[in-house]
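re: ur msg from earlier - yeah i can do the zinc ion complex, just paste it... oh wait u already did. ok heres what im feeding in:
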Amino acid sequence: MGDGAGLLLAQDEVVGLASELIRIDTTNTGDPATVVGERAAAEWVAEKLAEVGYETTYVESGAKGRGNVVARLAGADRSRGALLVHGHLDVVPADPSEWSVHPFSGAVQDGYVWGRGAVDMKDMVAMSLAVARRFKRDGIVPPRDIVFAFLADEEAGGFFGAKWLVENRPELFEGVTEAISEVGGFSITLKDDARAYLVETAEKGIRWLTLRVRGTAGHGSMIHRDNAVAKLAEAVTKLGNHQFPLVVRPSVREFLDGVTEITGWDFPEEDLEGAVGKLGALSRMIGATLRDTANPTMLSAGYKANVIPSVAQATVDCRILPGREEAFDRELAELLGPDVEREWVGLPPVETTFDGALVDAMAASITAEDPGARVLPYMLSGGTDSKSFQQLGIRNFGFAPLKLPADLDFSGLFHGVDERVPVDALKFGVRVLERFLRNS
Ligand SMILES: [Zn+2]
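and the outut:
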């Protein structure tokens, strides 16, 4: 990219940035009273941006310490829609006794940066920060405005992060038409040395559903025909055993067709789930994008062995394919009947098409660094802050490029023990990201 000697390149500082950021413990337990470190991390990011000349906006989203930072880099054509590059600063908890290194050490050893957040997603935050700093330091003007946003609370739904900002400070994202962030852009090795990079173009919706059943309270020693616990258990069993219909969305079909072209493997409609097993570790995630799911996760009822309680309730983690929300509701109502009360909080599915200039720029920036690689869309079974940004009409992609070793179980590292990211992958990612942002 025509860089002279002596310049500090983004790839020269990305490893240090990732390691430093991991050392700031930003554990998000989901309970706002115990969240730590988001403010310190946001202030650290703001300082790294201000150091090279950015004006930054620091926002605490409705609660003390829930720090978010936003900065805008002016592009050459200010009439074009801006591109949002966002990343979350919080991480899920980690128990040091289970790890080979301390999860908040940011250790750089054996070719990896280790620690909670290494792949989810302090890697991408460090990459974005390294490119943002490089652009400002060296006066590189991207084709259009880039908005960099570093956010709190993604791991608990973004209620103090993306979701709050979208609802309360939408002007920070004015003019943004497209966005990139986590859980996409990583490589999978399919056959010999044939690599495909997966760009996330869709996400299932989330519903955290509460089921509540009422009955008649009474003494545990009596004959009793209206027991809330028994009725709830029946409803939970029914739902836990239920299989929702197979629905192949375009993002899933395009992914499978791409894999077929690379490997020759067949994914016939009549045994899709069996065929998806060929994908190895990835089959857990891809398999979960073929149907809606409803997994019971919590139960609560009663307070004494000889008292029949009047209420029993359960929590069910439901994940719903794009386009299936109404059908899912109907199916649930039919399955559970009118006596099971249902309440939920959640976030909608996300879906966009895998085409256009931005997608072309992603593919070109990948193949410039990894010639011969394929770039394919895929659907994420989980959720990200994209769900919130979709509310502003923004088109969302998961594109945090990483070239990974063939034998690394990448999806297993998310929220896992010994979370780590290859040093080479970070350097690769930052080169791809810089090329992409210069050409989008
Ligand atoms: Zn994440």
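cool cool. The pocket of zinc ion is lined by residues 88, 120-121, 154, 182 (CB under 6 Å). ping me if u need the other ligands too
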